[in-house]
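Example with several molecule types.
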Amino acid sequence: MAESIRITTPFTEEMSRKLKAGDSVLITGTIISARDAAHKAMTEALARGEKLPVDWHNQIVYYLGPTPAKPGDPIGSCGPTTSGRMDAYTPTMLDQGIKGMVGKGSRTPEVVEAMKRNGATYFAAVGGAAALIAKSVKKYTVLAYPELGPEAVAALEVVDFPAIVVIDCEGNNFYEIGQKPFRNFDMNKI
Amino acid sequence: MRELDVKVITENVAEMCKEAAYYLPEDVYNGLKRGRETEKSEVGKIVLDQIIKNAEIAKAEDRPYCQDTGMTIVFVKLGQDLHIVGGDFNEAINAGIAKGYTEGYLRKSVVGEPLFNRVNTKNNTPGVIYTEIVPGDKLEITIAPKGFGSENKSGVKMLVPADGVRGVKKAVMEIILHASMNPCPPMVVGVGIGGTMDRAALLSKKALTRSIDQRNPMPEYAKLEEELLELINSTGIGPQLGGTTSALAVNVEWGPTHIAGLPVAVTICCHAMRHSHRIL
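Resulting structure tokens for the full complex:
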């Protein structure tokens, strides 16, 4: 695997289009956390014609609900949650200008289509590496929906946050590419 | 008759919740190390390195291994000659969960009602408590917090006797293939065979409290465990981004069932196979 590509925020479509499935990246700058309840609240606000509490233009969203920070720490353990649960809301959110998503696991074809349309990239962080990932987070500031606790929308200042491009903006999928050489399974042979 | 005050139960449960969240059991840690040695995918090796380092950081710094510190499953074996005094037994366990999750800076991930309101209970209670009455005067508690990235990919298949071993293998593999990379592999897979639908599910959960190095005592089931592990590791799922270390172990538990049935339940656990065990 080649050396990691360093990327900084804001994350533009031009930057997004340069990344390919399988690229290893280190993200520095501000990424914004949101998960199930926040996605529901935001898409409902949009449906009512309201303005969102955060400008998502050229932002990277991180599907995250951290543990509470210990005294003196910026954040608790903070690994990615399953992205698929956000799929129903994601095309709407991508149309709000999000150019990068960090989570784990597969996405629906509808999400991939919306990514191609918007030139957005989907990154995976290592699921369950939550104490390790916390080392790259320097500051955590709640931006909206504080009542949601760990599900609040928050800005994370990160330095060298490790992630891998799983689906690039052309729709290439590293989950498929990465599994194929090691697949030697046939249900009919059981 | 021996007496045990509920305060002792609460204190112990609180400590066990923290222990389980911070310290990955040694058998699982060693399993990850073995996986790293044999992993064939270059990206898979990088992922395993991160997972192993994560376990070391969590242990050294008393931090949650994963931010999903789970819904708290509590297996209790209550000796029939033990008298619980000073309060309500189940309330004492839940008080311990609330204390442990609050003091330990663990995430509160439980909503009080599942469909219409989904309001967080703010202290991770109630736990899922299974109590068995057994001979003796001891209280044996196992705390097994369960994350939902993997729980959401678990499942039950109601087979019929004619499906046999082949049917069981296919049923397990269908659930595994559907789960794919989503439940944070390397997985540990708990399989419950027999009983009723609910008993099979419970057996698949109990299977996950057994060490990954310990095979089922009945040779036929031990062989089934090995064969299922080989099948799962041939899927290419690997440690999340493809590879050969899809699962660390398959633990099978079985129970008597009906002449017409062959229930099979699969609980998938991520690499954060956490549990804490104490006898009071």
